[in-house]
Design a protein that fits this description.
mainly beta; OB fold (Dihydrolipoamide Acetyltransferase, E2P)
Length: 112
């Protein structure tokens, strides 16, 4: 209703004005879910697969890992924190890429 009491027709929104059909905007998805055992990030920061750019990665796909082995580093607030494996097994997939921002509890490595 307007101030003088006349009915006011609703204005089409930007989502419906272009094509006449409503468009829904999906929220961004969280980390991918997996059916395999994973090692998750203990904190938020930048994930690194090796101690320096000139050295080999701590682990590769197919590597046999023991519980407690270092699988990577996470840089947070200019400190490098070692990420230790919480399980033993063979690496099936590296989920986090080198230099990628990871969130706390995000899967980093998937085990068979």
């Amino acid at each position: 209703m307007s101030k003088d009491g006349a009915a006011v027709a609703p204005q089409p929104s930007a989502a419906t004005a272009a094509g006449g059909t409503a468009v829904s905007i999906a929220a961004p998805e969280g980390p991918a879910k997996t059916d395999y055992v994973t090692v998750n990030a203990p904190l938020t920061g930048i994930f690194y697969r090796s101690p320096s750019p000139q050295t080999d990665a701590f682990i590769q796909v197919g590597s046999e890992i023991a519980k407690g082995d270092v699988i990577g580093l996470i840089e947070a607030m200019k400190l490098f924190n070692e990420v230790h494996s919480t399980v033993a097994g063979r690496v099936k997939r590296m989920i986090a890429e080198n230099g990628q921002l990871v969130r706390a509890h995000q899967p980093l490595v998937e085990f068979e």
